[in-house]
Each structure stands twice: as structure tokens, then as C-alpha cells.
Amino acid sequence: MAIEKHGFTLTEKPMSPQAARPPAYSTPVFVGTAPVNLLNDPSSALNVPVLARSYDEAVAAFGFSYDFENFTLSEAIHSHFELHKLGSPIVLINVLDPAVHTEVVAASVKPIIKKTVTIEEQGVLRNSLVVKSADAASTYTLGTDYGVKFDANGQIVISVLGSGTIPADANSLSVAFSKLDASGVTGTDIIGGTDDETGIRSGLDLLEEVFPRFQHAPTYLAAPGYSQEPMVAAAMVRNSQSLNGMFRVRAVTDLDASVRWNAIAQWKQDNGYRDERQINTYPMAVRSGRRYRMSTLYTGAACATDASNDGVPAESASNKPLMADAIIYSDGTEMVIGKSIADEINAEGIVTAINFTGTIVAWGNRTGAFPDFRDPQRGFIPVRGMFDWVENNFAIQFWSKVDDMMNTRVVQEVTDGANIWLNGLVASGYLLGGRVEFLETENPIADLMQGKARFHFFITPPGPFQEIEGIFEYDTSYMNAFFGA
Q: Judging by beta carbons within 10 Å of its beta carbon (0-12, 13-18, 19+), is residue 242 exposed, middle or buried?
């Protein structure tokens, strides 16, 4: 007998994941050196991309030191989380190898003060310590005779244990150790590569792993302390063109800060810093007595600007605070220039800094491709950034359509969805206009038969207010004010 249902029938529908949406922030990637001696396992941080969402996460992964000259990732961490107060993630890649980039420090006698010995050098590898009596006749054991910890300054503190064999009246110890030698890290280490046999990546090649690991498409790529080397800058640009076969990244590079302002344009041309996805920064900066590479501070300013616009890179970081007290050359000499000279530098595709209203700001809207290419798409930093951002997020948002049935319904879904998205960007002011079309002329039957479809984006990002001109005229008609007219 057939059963006729009467009353409620209850079913559940499986959860459908929401389509990906662009994050409300930019994700910078920094490749450099870290004080990994502060970690329990210093080798664990070698050539491994780490996504840090906070200052504490970054320090836990890489340690921290104010010795920015040697530990460039500490500079990046400090700028991102402390100076610019960004609550967005940062990706960090350390290439300093504690098994290779080290220096052996011969034994020396150090005083015991209040049952402790402090080693003032930075970068000391804890496991390399050899502690002996002052006359080197007795060798002491970690955990039995002495303990070891790092103080707030990253210096090793050896504590004499009362239960050990170090004499209570001893007033000094002989200490030998190895320490990190960041000067041994070269541009070749930053560039890295991919092992042909193992497939293991290092250096800049690890950018390929950022999205698969974290589902964050990198926005900016920086290597402060090394990007002033032409071969490093060229590798950064090369890696920025097509990550994972699709994503675009912008390389924030330093120019040689030892070169004076009147020669930097020629240096840029001679060394090939001329790509549209290259933001050239120059020279260096100082804040609260600490020196920073310009690429570090500019990346922070750019991320802060993007964050103020929902993560959309439509606005230039030019004329935004640079978190600097002075602009300097690499020898520490202050570079004091006015707007006219800064404009000359900008006209060569170089971002610098000026102090026009009492605050030092980034100054310059042009990509490295300028003045070779003057069209907005290749010449303006925010316009180039918007093209890259729209391209990246088109792939992310509509990834779920890959391998769907390629029929007219799905084509229309992609077209309509993309147009709705662009309309939202127009309404928010991030585009002046935009549309997506599925054109017959770009989709021949032979390609459609092979599952290949092309969607044509027409977009116009707003350019920056590069020049505002006021026209002033003496108007004699206002003389009638004397007569009440």
C-alpha cells in the first residue's frame, strides 16, 4: 500500500562553502635573515615560509633583534606590527643557515657577577657554548654546572648552579662559542632556487609555496638589505610575474643608498630597475635612532594604505606618513631635498621621501617602468596594482568554476558574477568603470571544444592626483563692491 505523507517532512542540505572573497588587507612577503639562535631549534626556521598574524607569532617563529643591519626580518616585523600597527598577516622567509652562516669565537675569560656571566655579542648559538674554568683545566656541563637563557636584549646569560662543580669562590669563567654571521648571507642565498633532484625550494623560489600553504596571494615582495643588488632585484621581478602560474606580485626594491640623489637616476637605468611590477625606493630612513631600508617602510605604508581601503590597492602610498625622523644615505649622512628635486627623482620611476608639512611622507607614484612606459597601466603604481589585484582575485573568486560543465549557464554565471563584483568596486570608488564580456571573437569554436574559455575584463582604475593646478586671475568685476553692486 502506498504511504501518503501527512504533516512535517524534515531533511538536511549539506553545507556549501561560500565563494572566496578578497581579504580586507594586503599580504607582504619578506625574504631575509633572522636571529634564529634565539629559537630552541635554530635550523627549524631555515627556508620555510611562515605566515605571522601578530608580532608575537612572528617573534615566536624567528626571534627578534634590534640589530636590523644583520637581521632584516626583524626590521620587517618591527615596521609591520609596531610602527604601522597593522593587524594583517605577513609572510616571512629566513635564509640564514645556522649550520653555515656562523663565526667561531675563541675562548675568553669573562667575569662572574652575581652568579651570572653575560655574553654581550648578538647571535650566540646556545648549543655551541663551551664553558670552562678560567684556567681551562675544568670543563663544565650544561644543566649540571650552569644554566643558559637569553635576556631581553638577546644576549646569553650563563647562571652558575649552586649544586654544580663550579667553585663558589670562582670569579670568572672561560667561554667559547659560535655565533651567527649574517654577513655570510649573499644575494645568491636570497635568490635561492629549486633542487633538481629533491624539488626542495629555497629563497625567492619559496614564493611558489605561499598560496598553497596559506591561501593568501602575496601582494608585495621585499628583500631589504639585498634588493639593492641588481641580481636580487632581477630575481624578485622574475618571481613576481606569474606565481603558481597565475598570481601577480609587486616587487618593492631598494636602490643603492650610497649613491647621491643627482646620480641615482643613472644608477637605476644602468642596473635595470625598470619593470612595471617594480616599486623602486630610495634611499634609507632613520627613526628613533634606528636605521631602516626604504623598501621596508614603504611596504608598511602601502599595506596601511590598502587596509584603509578594504585591502584594495587603489590608492597610492605616496604622500602618506613614512614613519621616519630623517632620510639618510647608507653612510648616515642626511639627505635633505625639496619637492622639486624629489619630483626629478620621481620622474625617473623612483619613490623617495620629502618633508613638506612637518611629516616625512613617501613621495612618488611611478613604477620602475617609467619613464620608458608612460601609459597608466604600466606607469602608475596604483593602476598597476589594481590590474594585478583584479586579476588575482578573479582567479580566486571563480576557482570553483574550474572543471564545471562548460555550458552557456556556467559562462553566464561567471560573466554575471564578475560584473556584479566590478559594479561593487565602482560603487566603492575603487574603479571608475568596469565590465566583463564573453566575446565570440576571443572564443573560437576550436578552443571551446578543448574546454578553453576567455572572459574579457574592461577596467579603468583611478589614477592618483599626480598634479593639481590652480589657475588664478584678477577679476576687475569685484571692484563694483565699492558701489554696492
A: exposed
Residues in a beta bridge with 251: 221, 278
User: pLDDT, tens digit, for every residue of 121-177?
Assistant: 999 999 999 999 999 999 999 999 999 999 999 999 999 999 999 999 999 999 999
In tens, the pLDDT along 288-334 reads 999 999 999 999 999 999 999 999 999 999 999 999 999 999 999 99
Residue of 278, 296, 202 whose CA lies nearest to 241: 278
Query: Pick from 149, 180, 211: which residue ends a domain?
Result: 180
The count of structural domains within the chain is: 3
pLDDT digits (tens, 9 = 90+) for 191-235: 999 999 999 999 999 999 999 999 999 999 999 999 999 999 999
Tens of pLDDT, residues 64-88? 999 999 999 999 999 999 999 999 9
Looking at the fold, whether 287 and 362 belong to one and the same domain comes out as yes
Please tell me whether residues 204 and 312 are part of one structural domain. yes
Handedness of CA 107, 110, 116, 121 (dihedral sign): negative
Rounded to 5 degrees, what are φ and ψ at 298? -65, -40
Pair (251, 310) in one structural domain: yes
Residue 16 forms part of a structural domain: no
Q: Are residues 267 and 155 in the same domain?
A: no
What is the DSSP track for 330-398?
TTS-B----HHHHHHHHTTT-BEEEESSSSEEEE--B-TTTTT--SHHHHBHHHHHHHHHHHHHHHHHT
Q: Are residues 341 and 232 in the same domain?
A: yes
Domain check: are 35 and 83 in the same one?
Answer: yes
Query: Is the same domain home to 263 and 316?
Result: yes
Chain centroid to CA 27: 7
**pTM (two decimals):** 0.92
List, in sequence order, every residue forming a beta bridge with 252; answer none if it has no partner.
222, 279
Inside any domain, residue 390: no
Q: What span, in angstroms and rounded, lies between the C-alpha atoms of 58 and 162?
A: 36
**Is 56 domain-assigned?**
yes
Residue 201 domain flag: yes
- Assign 11 a pLDDT band (cuts: 50, 70, 90): low
Strand pairing class (278-281; 250-254) = parallel
The reply to whether 157 and 243 lie within a common domain is no
Domain of 465, in residue numbers = 402-485
**Coil, helix or strand for 306?**
helix
Report DSSP letters for 424-451, one per residue: HHHHTTS-SEEEEE--GGGS-HHHHHTT
- Convert the pLDDT of each residue in 368-409 to its tens digit: 999 999 999 999 999 999 999 999 999 999 999 999 999 999
